[in-house]
Amino acid sequence: MIINKFEGLAVEAGIWEKTNFRSYAWSLVLITLISALPFFIHSQWITGPIINAVLIVTLFIGGLRPAIIASLIPSLMALQGGLLPVVLAPAIPFIMISNVILVLVIDFFCRDKSKITNYWYGLVVGASLKFVFLYFSVDLINKLLLNKNLSPIISQMMSWPQLITALLGGTMAYLIIKKSNTSTPSTLS
Question: How many CA atoms lie within 13 A of 85 on its CB side?
Fold first, then answer.
């Protein structure tokens, strides 16, 4: 009874027509995946590409908002799941921002969805900006660390592996999107 009233109100308000619930459902599944992943896999070289791929797939399936929300979650889960040691918690906001940078840049380049080169330009520029942002944030992050002996570890984590994992993740995302015939990249050839 309550559901019927809700559906009636939603139809009157035009919500059903404006909202693609399937896209949001898939986005929720992908966000759940990247939330759980750090609890099971404790390797930056495995989780990094998968998380970057999921962020990009979320962008193409659910849109910019779900992708930005998804960009904020992996770092917190990595901290809670043990992939990121607690003493490295000051790096979390920087990792979140770098994920948002990647998503925003790819979104910007892929607005003209008919050209494959736009995706690859977006990926390369987005991955590069993510890397540059994290690379130049290392000094500030190291100043925030309580244990200064961890500076070499954080410097290593925030340098070239970020570029490589973003590019690998973007390649994985392209293959997933292309294979799934998602509305955006399926037009890419």
Answer: 10
Determine the residue type at 181: N
Residue 63's CB is within 10 A of a number of other CB atoms, namely: 16
Dihedral of alpha carbons 181, 118, 122, 22, sign: negative
Q: Which residue has the tokens 């944030």?
A: 137
* Residue type present at position 35: S
Domains of the chain (ranges plus CATH)?
Answer: 2-187 (1.10.1760.20)
Residue 99 CB-half CA count within 13 A: 31
Question: Given 3-state DSSP classes, what are the helix, strand and coil percentages for the chain, each rounded to the nearest 5?
Answer: 85, 0, 15
**Pairwise CA distance, residues 78 & 57, whole Å:** 20
How do residues 20-62 score in pLDDT, each as one tens digit?
777 777 778 888 887 777 777 767 789 899 999 999 999 998 8
CA dihedral 58, 179, 45, 80 (to 10 degrees): 30
State the virtual CA torsion across 55, 138, 109, 119 in degrees, nearest 10: -60
Contact 114, 187 (CB under 8 A): yes
The one-letter amino acid code at 146 reads L
